[in-house]
Amino acid sequence: MFDRFDFRVVRLFLGAALLLCLEMARAVPTEGLELVGAPLIQRFTAEDYQVAPRHFSVLTDAQGRVFVGTLEGVLVFSHGRFETITLPSDSSARKLLLGDRGRVYVAGYDHFGYLRQDDLGKWSFVDLDERFTESPGPHALGDVWDVVLLGTDAYFLTAERLYRVGKDESESWPTPGRSHSMFSFDDELLVRVQDHGLMRFSQGAFTLVPGGEQLASARANVMLPGAEGVLIGTRNNGFFRWQQGRVTAVPSQLDEWFRQAELYCGLTLPDGTYAVGALNGEVLHLDDQLQLLDRFVASSYPIVSIAVDREGGLWAATDGDLVRAAWPSPWTQLTDADGLLGSIEDSAFFAGRRYVATSMGLFASQVDSGHRVSFARMDELGSDEVWDLLVHDGLLFAAHRLGIYQYDGKEFLKISSAAYPFDVVPSVFRDDRLYGLSDAGLVVLVTKEDGYAEQAILPVPCVVLYSLAETSADEILVGNFRGFPARLGLDPEGRQLLRNETLDTRFGVQVEDGQLASISRLGNNIVLGTTAGTSVWRDLRFQPDDLNGLGALIERKDELAIREGDNRRFAFTSRQLFKQEGDGPWERVQISSPLARGVIDVSIEPTGLVSVVTWGALLTLDQSHNTTGSASAPVTAHRISVLGNQKQAWQLPLAPSTPTTVDPHRLLRFEYGVNSAERGIEYRSWLTGFEPGFSGWSESKLREFSALPPRRYELRVEGRSPSGRQIERLTYAFEVLPRWYQTQWAAWLASGLVLLVAWLLAWSWNRWRSRQLRARNIELERSIEAHTRELEVANQRLAKLAVQDGLTGVTNRRGFEQAYARMWNRLAETRQAMAVLMVDVDFFKQYNDAHGHLAGDEVPRRIARALEAEVHESSEVLARFGGEEFAVLLPNTQVDEAMKRAQQIRERCEAAGREHDITVSVGVSVCVPRGGLKPVQLLDEADAALYRAKKAGRNRIERARTI
Question: How many C-beta atoms surround the C-beta of residue 168 within 10 A?
């Protein structure tokens, strides 16, 4: 097995050979390549920041903030939020540069200057071009293409003029020709001038440098300082080097790629290597000799600028989106963008290629002449489901919908006709045997001359096979999808099932009928996972065992599955993933990607890589890569606002040296967060002097307090990240001042006035009259209230009849649409999630045709009663959407809870319809209502998920894509 260094050398050699053969268009096998996919990518679009997604420049600062020059100003990503800073005349921001004292220099359109942030967190733009009067109008500059700092001076470049802004003086000069780029090196300013080349600027004069004429027609966009001078990257002519006062060409094996991809931006990384981006959407990692280290497609749009944040993430600004890649990172991803269709089920490396099983067939990796890896479907197995892959004895085994196939790298051979096999497992005690799990039962495969062949298909009554583990050469423990596990005994040849013993409570098993019982192997032990806990097979029974702390960490213990190899162990359920190194403790594996919300399967590859199949992608873990970036980050204040009675708002200092004072009876709004792109960071807060302790953990980054009593307070905010990175606490002290009537002298004055008024009222002759009038008013109000109550009851009955379904008695379609609109608007205001569950009766038309319409009408009534038992009508909505289809609205419900509720509904309906074999399929869609998202999109996604559930076999749940 190659180590990381050797493998990279081999990959570079193959990459160079392939790049020399670009004229070859056909796909070739990917033997020798590391087929792990692209880094984990977060993609931001106009839906995230509400401005036109046309970007020109990106940079990061030491605080972890990201600044993006856009068509509508400067976009700032801070504390997990985007905000836009508009420039004078709504100018665009073409180039950004980080200066000292937190300044961000901006080269825009008709304007240039810098941004600065005050103590309140408010950004302002300092317009520097107003200093110049010799140009035709102070703002008639056109595009300002570049900005460079040289000493204490800032230089701004337009197509025809160079501007210098010093501390006390400013001046400008015309350029010899059209210019768009410049850089500084060793206290020298160099400008690339069209039709001239690279020119040195000094004391108001432009002078062509030796060799600079080579850049006369080459569009130089990339300037990369390094140990041997500055690398100058051109759009179509490769690289040149500025060193010791002259320009020389730097030939590279990637020159053909540079010409075709159109190199456009780049930066020097802290380790001295380079990252470059191109207009074809690719990012390349190059060493100091311009040798290829890595490459990936970051976007389908042209990349115009890149930057690296303090966590090691690579940001790419493109013409259509903003991308952050966790790069370098131990995690990489493969998705439908790589040619994979359907839901991914498993992955395996075989004969130099990577094979991926999906619900749409078996896909194999291929590489084109440009060294780009993609996947294509193997036509031999068609587009039917492939559930599992196994590499064993030099063969690839595939559990296909129609049976089990073996593949020797040349042709597929069907070795079992068992229906719906979903797992193939090698025997631990017999080198000549494999086991398959299928709907038909246990499949026994034995070695033959040309590989393996089916020895027997052994039905296992009363057991829906889920998993297996051997106790001996002829005895197997199997997990049950719906109840107690079983112990199976086979004859030595594997042709007959001699024993099928149910492992019930007599064997230490606590599981109810219909619940899952999983079986896994952990070292020399066989582990059982049920909702009651984890246990180990000892002395012919299962005995409770915490599995070295794993049992306490696992939430869904009945789903527990374990994979072992290479002195590592991985344990997982559909929601969690844990890792153990050697005999060390179990640790939670956190993957900061929206593609990793749920886990389907894990496999430890012979190459040392770990494949993790998630709901949204195929992820690969390569532990030889170490992540970079800061070890810790603080929680800091983003904005602290005080809201007055007239909807007036003003800000408080973000980091005052002494406690800030606040006027009484005001609404205080604290916005905070961590300058990090990591997803899933949670916060908890405590306002001392007002609350008893810390709140629960939440991803919310906002706290509001209204009408606090006068005293001194301290807001403490703590954070925790999924990656386990340390996060420093935020502490903010402030004091609420008392109002005049809350002072001591005001209290004495108020007491005297109360006594005086009481004495006057006691002797007032109007006292008796007032009582009489009050009694009459009370009687009148009671009469009016009674009539009003009767009218309200009548109106409520009429309103209920108008939105009630006549057949089932639940809310009808009209009432659903009214409730949906109200819930959408309410959750949009509070920024809470909303879930839609579309429930449809399976095979209703066939039932209706077979039993008649009267019996058919009873089906929706029965399903409606089952649904009413699962839906809380006080806050949730159940409605008949049409025919045999129902809809459920769940407010403030995240994806995990929605999927859990959908499973409960499906099980309740299955139980209600078991007498007539009636089941339902459910489609689940969740989003947070927001601007730019139409309400009907959430319903469409739920309906699409319901359609996939129907297509996938019915009586199941499917989750919609994230919107």
Answer: 4
